[in-house]
User: Fold this.
Amino acid sequence: MLIAGNWKMFKGPAEAGAFCRELRDADLPDDVDVVVCPPYVSLAAAAQALAGTEIGVFAQSCHWDREGAFTGEISAAMLKELGVYGSLVGHSERRLYFGETDETVARRSAAALAEGLHVIACVGESEQERDAGETDAVLRRQVSVLESDENLVIAYEPVWAIGTGRTATPEMARQAHETIKEILDVPVLYGGSVKPDNAAELLAQPGVDGALVGGAALTVDSFVAICRSPS
Ligand code: PGA
Assistant:
């Protein structure tokens, strides 16, 4: 079971350090892998606060080249140098607002894996796509560009459930995870309005191997409550 907190554009270095020191001292279950994904500028503070613990620090994206003329981008090698353990790629907000495509997501994922980082690659259908009965096809398209790897995890995040307070029903999540696992045999996390009060039911579904948590990962109490909910 893996629980990852995606902080998005929240928490600068001071706040990130304080959060991670509190998380380090929290009572986390031994059988749950815990990951935080701070913004780039807070990665060093998080990595420092969590050094020597089992809690992993992930970036929220990374570029496919080691270095080059790519203003505003960060490479996997740079992340490794900082003590970062992995990276998200292809979050729907990156796809929606920053022109990320299946192809760029695949390139980012492959480069990060080649550099020895772990990767959580995000996929998921929009509301319009679900209403049009296209969920299965969208997931197949988004997942089939990714190469299987022992360090790859997929996060199924229906776009209509992100930050909206709406979650997929456990049955929707189970079905989507099944589709994804037919294409790639890797762990699959559920994401989209996971909260302390719905985590246990979602995490109990067959094929749900953990959660990618946004809003509810921003306070230590609710994030720890989610980490403890599988047990
Ligand atoms: P949310 O975000 O939990 O706030 O819906 C999830 C995500 O975007 O990863």
